Amino acid sequence: MLYISYNENEDGSGVLSLTGELIIANAEDVKGALLSALSSARCLQLDVSRVTEVDLSYIQLLCSAHRFAGKRQGQLSFTPQPSELFKEIVRASGVVRHKVFGR
């Protein structure tokens, strides 16, 4: 199960909170939420602190969202920092960049 919520801050930035499973079965919902949030907020923070499972489909969506934000002179970041388990899954996928989590 996946729960998605979006809150826009007074400064126009937004926070997209994803709770539960970030898996292929939920990919369309995550994609829609990311596109909607990035369309309304140039600076978007992702809260994945309560994610219980992650697969490659989410990693691919995250990369696409990052490129989309960059093309719009926007920013995509995490708040708070993701768990070590989440970071390890992203690192294992081979797509980690130095600015995503640090090393």
Note the main attributes of this structure:
single chain; 103 residues; alpha/beta; four-stranded mixed beta sheet; 43% helix
Strand content: 25-35%
Structural class: alpha/beta
Q: Biggest sheet: strands side by side, in what order?
A: 1-2-3-4
- According to DSSP, the number of beta strands is 4
The backbone outline, from C-alpha atoms, is globular
Give, in order, the helices and strands: EEHEHEHH
Described by strand count, sense and barrel closure, the largest sheet is: 4 strands, mixed
Radius of gyration: 13 Å
Provide the helix percentage.
40-55%
Query: So how many helices?
Result: 4
Give the low-pLDDT segments.
Answer: none
The separation of the N and C termini measures 31 Å
Residue-averaged pLDDT: 87
Task: Characterise the protein shown here.
There is one protein chain. This protein has helices at about 25-40, 55-70, 85-95, 100; strands spanning about 1-10, 15-20, 45-55, 75-80. It is α/β, with parallel strands linked by helices. A hairpin with a 5-residue loop joins strand 1 and strand 2 (about 15-20). Helix 1 runs parallel beside helix 2 (about 55-70). The mean pLDDT is about 85.
What secondary-structure arrangement, pairings included, does this model have?
Blueprint: E1 2-8, E2 14-22, H1 27-40, E3 43-54, H2 56-71, E4 75-78, H3 84-93, H4 98-101
Parallel strand pairs: 2-3, 3-4
Antiparallel strand pairs: 1-2
Helix pairs in contact: 1-2
